[in-house]
């Protein structure tokens, strides 16, 4: 070998050695990179909070997923499932109670290549709920599926509790409302009993005073008659009558407060009513109180009981006078007001519509806000003992509410008080009042059937009719009245109490008119449920008289009904 050949051989050797070194270096670099990549992958794989598992699916002869092997799992896998040391193990060995649902789910992902996202319960893992995202990885021939999942048991239970809470919310609200209603009802009952106690106490006080006047006077009259001292009889008859009239007025006020009085509601000219009372009011108020009357012209008719409205106006004026002991100024005004639905629905039970407003205002002592809240309570009064019953404003309140109106009070201590009465307007024209008969009218022998279960009242009515020249026949109850009505006897008028035992007077009248269609009926009543508003209780040829009544009032009413 020549020296040249030797040099060539050495060069070739060095070249081969360099190539080999380069290849070895490349392989070392590649291995180093692969190792670094695997370490990075492993670090990321185990750093993920979600559980990750790579599964290898196995199928039965029918092509259905029968098992899967845990190829690889991350650290969070154990945290979420509670399973450990499962790599290279088949799931049916590692978790014998695994549900077929999970096998079918992963098998579907493997065979179709379509990823799935589900939330489902795992019974074999203590009924935990998992949010799972499954997808196929690698060569489809390897049947590898990756599953990323998190334990959402706490969230699902919270959602379930919230769902159950929402489902039972209505029931629990109803129960809470019912419980509150029970408490409120107990409070209302306590307040009602307190009000009843105040009512009965005041009622007993006033009635006992009045009954003492009646009973004492009657007892003295009996003694004077037995001893022949006739000169004293008339005096105590007047005393007994005065006490009885006071008792009647008290009963009327109580019925008004309870909205149970018998109202004769008709279209009424309120301006004319005020004008008719003006002179009387000036005399009542006295010289120290100046009265101004401001009436709006063209005032529409009001739907009310004129007598009760007169009493209310008189009562308010007397209250105003008493609130100005050193004199003052009082104003009576009328106007109209239209209440829209928003104003009407303010807890005052007012219907939207047109109202006549009658106002009484003074510049007297006024009232505090606390006093105003109590003025409508029965027997509450700011007047000294013996100067007021405490039923005036409660009577006005009851009367107005019963007739569809309302009352409002505005007052300030040291400034004065204004009371406004809201009375519904009427679409009908004002009815001209019938003139009063100057003397007590007498009968012409007409036959009047008196049906009254109270023997004393029946005796008084029958005797009055006999004295007036009528022919009276009497019945204690409806059955006895039927026996008379079924005869051929002429009956020109039936006077019946409304509150009869068994069939009431209104039912009696209905049945009586089936055989006597033109029978006229005069009802007398102290109080009867359903007869509070006469226009809704009376039919054609019927009228009503409220107990107690004067003899001349009965005589006039009977004559009016029998006059063609």
Automatic annotation (TrEMBL):
This protein's UniProt keywords: Coiled coil, Phosphoprotein
The keyword Zinc-finger is assigned to this record: no
Record field: catalytic activity: ATP + protein L-histidine = ADP + protein N-phospho-L-histidine
Domain Histidine kinase: 202-427
Coiled-coil features, chain-numbered ranges: 155-186
Keyword Coiled coil set for record: yes
Cited Pfam families: HATPase_c (PF02518), HisKA (PF00512), PAS_8 (PF13188), Response_reg (PF00072)
4-aspartylphosphate carried by residues: 497
Domain called Response regulatory: residue spans: 447-562
EC number per UniProt: 2.7.13.3
Name of the protein in question: histidine kinase
Organism: Blastomonas fulva
């Amino acid at each position: 070998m020549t020296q040249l050949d030797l040099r060539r051989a050495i060069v070739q050797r060095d070249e081969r050695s360099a190539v080999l070194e380069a290849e070895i270096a490349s392989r070392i670099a590649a291995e180093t990179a692969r190792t670094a990549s695997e370490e990075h992958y492993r670090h990321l794989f185990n750093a993920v909070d979600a559980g990750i598992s790579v599964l290898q699916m196995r199928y039965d002869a029918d092509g259905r997923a029968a098992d899967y092997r845990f190829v690889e799992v991350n650290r969070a896998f154990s945290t979420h499932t509670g399973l450990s040391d499962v790599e290279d193990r088949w799931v049916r060995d590692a978790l014998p109670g695994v549900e077929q649902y999970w096998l079918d789910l992963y098998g579907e992902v493997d065979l179709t290549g379509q990823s799935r996202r589900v939330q489902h319960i795992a019974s074999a893992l203590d009924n935990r709920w998992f949010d799972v995202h499954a997808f196929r990885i690698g060569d489809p021939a390897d049947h590898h599926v990756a599953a990323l999942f998190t334990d959402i048991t706490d969230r699902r239970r919270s959602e379930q509790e919230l769902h159950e809470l929402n489902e039972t919310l209505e029931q629990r609200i109803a129960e809470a409302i019912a419980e509150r209603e029970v408490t409120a009802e107990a409070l209302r009952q306590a307040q009602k009993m307190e009000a009843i106690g105040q009512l009965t106490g005041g009622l007993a006080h006033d009635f006992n005073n009045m009954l003492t006047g009646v009973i004492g006077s009657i007892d003295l009259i009996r003694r004077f008659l037995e001893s022949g001292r006739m000169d004293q009889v008339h005096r105590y008859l007047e005393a007994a009558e005065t006490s009885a009239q006071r008792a009647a007025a008290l009963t009327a006020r109580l019925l008004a407060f309870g909205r149970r009085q018998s109202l004769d509601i008709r279209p009424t000219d309120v301006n004319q009513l005020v004008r008719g009372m003006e002179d009387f009011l000036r005399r009542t108020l006295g010289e120290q109180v100046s009265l101004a009357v401001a009436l709006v012209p063209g005032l529409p008719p009001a739907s009310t009981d004129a007598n009760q409205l007169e009493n209310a106006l008189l009562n308010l004026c007397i209250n105003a006078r008493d609130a100005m002991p050193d004199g003052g100024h009082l104003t009576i005004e009328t106007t109209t007001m239209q209440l829209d639905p928003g104003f009407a629905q303010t807890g005052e039970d007012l219907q939207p519509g047109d109202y006549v407003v009658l106002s009484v205002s003074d510049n007297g002592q006024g009232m505090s806000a606390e006093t105003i809240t109590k003025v409508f309570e029965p027997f509450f009064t700011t007047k000294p003992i013996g100067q007021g019953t405490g039923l005036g404003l409660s009577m006005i309140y009851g009367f107005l509410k019963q007739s569809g109106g309302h009352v409002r009070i505005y007052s300030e201590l040291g400034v004065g008080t204004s009371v406004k009465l809201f009375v519904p307007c009427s679409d009908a024209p004002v009815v001209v009042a019938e003139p009063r008969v100057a003397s007590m009218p007498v009968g012409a022998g007409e036959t009047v059937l008196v049906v009254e279960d109270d023997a004393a009242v029946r005796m008084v009515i029958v005797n009055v009719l006999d004295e007036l020249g009528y022919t009276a026949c009497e019945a204690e109850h409806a059955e006895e009245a039927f026996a008379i009505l079924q005869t051929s006897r002429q009956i020109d008028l039936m006077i019946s109490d409304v509150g009869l035992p068994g069939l009431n007077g209104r039912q009696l009248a209905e049945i009586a008119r089936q055989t006597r269609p033109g029978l006229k009926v005069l009802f007398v009543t102290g109080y009867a449920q359903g007869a509070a508003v006469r226009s809704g209780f009376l039919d054609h040829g019927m009228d009503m008289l409220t107990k107690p009544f004067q003899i001349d009032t009965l005589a006039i009413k009977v004559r009016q009904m029998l006059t063609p």
